[in-house]
Amino acid sequence: MENKKIHHLILLIFSIFGLINYFLIKNNIIADNLKLLFFCFFMILILGVSHGALDHFRGKNLLQPILKKNWFIFFYPGYILLGLIVIFCWTIFPTITLLLFLVVASYHFGEEDLRFFFKGRGYFFSLVSFLKGALIITLSFHYNHETTVVFFEYLMVPQIEYEKLTEFKSLLFSINLIFLIISLIYLLRNQINKLALILFEIMFILLSFIYLPLILAFSMYFCFLHSSKHIIGLARELDSKNISNGLKLFVLKATPLTLLTVILAFLLLYFLDQNINENIIQVIFIGLASLTLPHIILEVLDRRNG
User: Fold this and answer.
1) In terms of pTM, does the model score above 0.85?
2) SS (H, E, C) the chain
């Protein structure tokens, strides 16, 4: 199946899922914030985190030629150590760590999203990738400012650290969106079909962040528009001729680490001593940050390795 058809299917699922949730929330069928948080938490753990569940195979491909059978002795402790370093830095320097995470995540989100459509390279492609990923952050700050402030408080970042940005939240979002669209038009001026697909995706992202609760809009983006593309790429690597079989292989290979992550996440929820809403937000975002660093490093090394 071509990426174009796959993307149409992804957008269809995204829109139907969003419309159903909008209807349920608008009619107070889903009115419990805690239930919504748990739903998004579980969705991120199953659909979102699983897109990095094959990182150990990338690690094996990179290290086995050098370390032979002992590759795992270095890979697993190194992967876990990088994650623990992120968590440690967050507890000591929450503001700086969150800022770095937002910058790195913006580039990572945008770069992987755009690579689904074409293989870009160079500084301009990197800039467009950053603008694409940063849209998630500026959207959150603009349309869901009050919720974003609460989330930052849960993530140990005091409001005084970013309150000066509040008066510029609309300007930051507008600049981000305008420059992103102009850059995409220039970058894909000779590939109108791909440009249209990406612009449609941006429109769907905008609508979800405007009309849905922040945590749900983010979860939908992360699971359906980001993670799904990475999973499709992994499925093609596992079976380049039959994507259905590739997806089956992905599920089989990704299930063990995904389940382990789910268990660890719920254990963290149990042992954290704040209120449950705060615990869920901390496990989601600090947990994602701790997994993002080693995941990105592996992606970069794997790409350089060809």
Assistant:
1) yes
2) CCHHHHHHHHHHHHHHHHHHHHHHHHCCCCCCHHHHHHHHHHHHHHHHHHHHCCHHHHHHHHHHHHHHHHHHHHHHHHHHHHHHHHHHHHHHCHHHHHHHHHHHHHHHHHHHHHHCCCCCCCHHHHHHHHHHHHHHHHHHHHHCHHHHHHHHHHCCCCHHHCHHHHCCHHHHHHHHHHHHHHHHHHHCCCCHHHHHHHHHHHHHHHHHHHHCCHHHHHHHHHHHHHHHHHHHHHHHHHCCCCHHHHHHHHHHHHHHHHHHHHHHHHHHHHHCCCCHHHHHHHHHHHHHHHHHHHHHHHHHHHHHCC
